[in-house]
Specification:
- The structure is a single chain.
- The chain is mainly α and about 675 residues long.
- It has one domain.
- It is built from 27 helices and two strands.
- The chain has a two-stranded antiparallel ribbon with strand order 1-2.
- Strand 1 and strand 2 form a beta hairpin.
- Helix 2 packs across helix 19, helix 9 packs across helix 18 and helix 25 packs antiparallel against helix 27.
- It is globular, with a radius of gyration of 25 Å.
Length: about 675
């Protein structure tokens, strides 16, 4: 994609004029109830519930369920049931606070269990002397949560104007946009509410039958052993991914699919083909940790040991290029912010008063941001197990900011649901390890310090995506940014208190390493990957070749004039996630393609598209709500957990061998129904 117009000076003025013309749902000159006790209490409760549920989900299955939309829906349902007068901005605060727990859970579960995995190995006995105990204490986990979460919140404040306002026409922020549509529809009622709640009902029923009752399988795949050995065709036929694809549109969805096609239908079969020429008995180790010869690898193993590292390199380079594009605006924002700080201390300076700034443009003072970041950096040096130089601490903080920018940009392009958080975490740990090794860190002490600093940065990266979505919702609704930024800390502190307890309870109940006491431990896939990667980094065993090759692929795509970040994300994520997103993008294209009707009535497509956005937002919400409920059931009932695990495959669902055909048929039926519904007339249009 060519450089956007706002990168030039003339384009910038055009972009700013568009921003000035934008009118939120609640205008800046109106002051209505926003931060209230009932909103804070309900948001804090939801934050803990979603955080605990997603902690289990991440450790058991390696995934989390985005909580922004479920929090928005539950806010409307609960507040409007209990109270007569509830404003849209109160609902916005509930979803702002309530969604934070899921992001914190991702940052914690992707990193902290690595300490438990190391503690089970005798060669890491020195960790007890470094930490003062065999395992990180509840208090230490709480501190890491607060430090990382605080960094994520503070780093996003100076980025808000660029990512949310200036890039309003460029970045979709699917969940943030969906949340605003859901909250507005609940406020206005009528056909808008009908579209949202119809979508919610269909999405929830679909997800309940597929994922809760396990009537038909969720994931389908076909290995191309005869025609393209090592290649695979796959789809995760979920309503949420289809709805997100419609919101994103065909361009971004197409870029994602192109990366997936290259990785899983191009490079993987090529690797398998090359592996077939290796003489029998000659073992060439895989790029990543493993012991399977290249020619005998399955498509899943090829992804694990090769394609995933290509994606990590591509995401890192694509994200860095996106950061370079944003650099002029970020520098300008910082220059303005520093100017305001100096003006406060200058006797002749022009101080900026709140009264002179529109309510919808008031952020936390930059001096607070700067002071908070400095406090976090200083606090890092007092954590047990951290033995790093000042330069390493500062460098880790700077790279943390860069990764926050990249992660927030990714979320804006493809949404939180599909954000490659684990890939960003791996990149974070790699950079952190490189910085610490360059400043003299070695052995177990270096590994512990890397994981400590990496955990803080990882939590900041995970939180930034959620905060960016929340600020987008607030921008569309007309919220006060400063109030959202302050209440994010409420959404952070309560799940942070619960997260350490949750990790210890799950370790006691299931364990993270197979043993006589825990023969079937939680897989903790991301944490296992992080533990292995940090070990490899300090043992000089990182697969740099595929990481660098992935970066070169992203650079080649940029040279074609196409944004490489969604392409690289598609290469990192499984093909099964890109295909349903592309299906939703195709529906978006079909709704917008020119026809006789649209040429004679220009507003018709706009009506169809608005209905599509509302319906798709509802579908995503219904899917996510049932996903969280199923996660809670799996965590709370061993009976249901056994049923859930034994009925998940293509042959083990309730419809048995007909599962793939049933799954694909229902997914196609959802697409056809959506197309017809978007083009239908509601009663208030007749």
């Amino acid at each position: 994609m060519a450089e956007p117009a706002h990168s030039s000076q003339s384009g910038s003025s055009q972009s700013e004029s568009k921003i000035e013309q934008f009118q939120p749902y609640i205008s800046a000159d109106k002051n209505i109830a926003e931060v209230t006790m009932k909103a804070l209490v309900l948001g804090a409760i939801l934050s803990v519930v979603f955080g605990v549920a997603n902690a289990y989900l991440a450790l058991k299955y390696g995934m989390t369920v985005s909580a922004s939309i479920p929090a928005a829906v539950m806010s409307m349902a609960i507040l409007r049931t209990l109270f007569k007068n509830v404003t849209v901005l109160e609902n916005n605060i509930v979803q702002t606070v309530g969604s934070a727990g899921e992001s914190l859970a991702a940052g914690i579960t992707f990193t902290i269990p690595a300490f438990f995995i190391w503690a089970a190995q005798p060669k890491f006995a020195a960790m007890k002397d470094i930490l003062g105990s065999e395992l990180p204490s509840w208090w230490l986990i709480f501190l890491l949560s607060m430090l990382g979460g605080t960094l994520g919140i503070l780093f996003m404040i100076p980025l808000r104007r660029y990512l949310v306002e200036k890039e309003h026409k460029t970045l979709a922020f699917p969940e943030g946009t969906a949340c605003s549509e859901i909250i507005i529809a609940g406020e206005e009622g009528g056909s808008k509410a009908k579209s949202v709640f119809l979508g919610m009902g269909i999405g929830a029923l679909y997800k309940l039958l597929m994922n809760g009752v396990r009537v038909w399988p969720e994931s389908l795949e076909m290995h191309l052993k005869k025609f393209l050995k090592g290649g695979v065709l796959s789809i995760e036929a979920t309503p949420a991914l289809f709805g997100i694809g419609y919101i994103l549109g065909p361009r971004v969805a197409g870029f994602m699919l192109s990366g997936a096609v290259l990785g899983y239908l191009g490079i993987a079969p090529l690797l398998s083909f090359v592996g077939g020429f290796i003489p029998e008995g000659v073992f060439i180790p895989p790029a990543g940790p493993g012991d399977t010869p290249l020619g005998m690898m399955t498509s899943d193993e090829l992804r694990t040991f090769y394609i995933r590292y290509l994606g990590i390199g591509g995401v890192s380079v694509g994200g860095f290029i996106a950061l370079l594009r944003a650099a002029p605006t970020i520098v300008h924002s910082f220059r303005e912010a520093f100017g305001q700080v100096f003006a406060r201390f200058s006797p002749n300076g022009n101080k900026v008063n709140d009264a002179d700034v529109p309510r919808t443009d008031r952020d936390l003072p930059f001096v607070w941001v700067l002071g908070g970041v400095l406090l976090v950096v200083v606090a890092l040096f007092f954590l047990p197990g951290i033995d790093i130089t000042i330069s390493a601490g500062v460098a880790a903080t700077v790279f943390g900011f860069l990764f926050v920018v990249v992660a927030a940009r990714i979320v804006g392009e493809i949404g939180s649901t599909n954000s490659p958080v684990s890939g960003m975490t791996i990149a974070t740990l790699l950079v952190t390890a490189f910085i610490l090794m360059a400043t003299g860190a070695t052995g177990v002490a270096g590994m512990v310090a890397t994981l400590m600093v990496g955990t803080v940065v990882c939590i900041a990266v995970c939180m930034s995506g959620d905060i960016a979505q929340d600020l987008k919702t607030g921008y569309l609704l007309g919220a006060t940014p400063r109030k959202q930024q302050l209440t994010e800390f409420v959404g952070l502190i309560f799940p942070a208190l619960a997260m350490g307890v949750t990790i210890y309870i799950l370790d006691d109940a299931f364990g993270f390493v197979a043993s006589a006491e825990h023969p079937n431990p939680l897989a903790a896939p991301q944490a296992n990957a992080m533990a292995t990667i940090v070990q490899a980094a300090f043992g000089d065993g990182l697969p740099w070749a595929p990481i660098l090759a992935g970066g070169m692929m992203a650079l080649a795509v940029e040279l074609l004039g196409i944004r490489s970040l969604p392409f690289a994300i598609g290469m990192y994520l499984p093909l099964s996630l890109s295909t349903p997103i592309f299906a939703g993008g195709i529906l978006h294209w079909m709704i917008h393609r020119p026809s006789k009707a649209t040429k004679s009535d220009k507003t018709l497509v706009k009506k169809w598209h608005q209905k599509g956005i509302l319906f798709s937002s509802g579908v995503v919400a219904g899917d996510a709500l049932i996903g969280v409920a199923v996660a809670a059931l799996v965590a709370g009932s061993t009976t249901y957990q056994g049923y859930f695990d034994s009925h998940g495959g293509a042959e083990t669902s309730l419809v048995g061998e007909y599962g793939p055909a049933v799954s694909l048929s229902i997914f196609v039926a959802l697409a056809l129904y959506s197309y017809r519904y978007f083009k239908s007339k509601s009663k208030d249009e007749v």
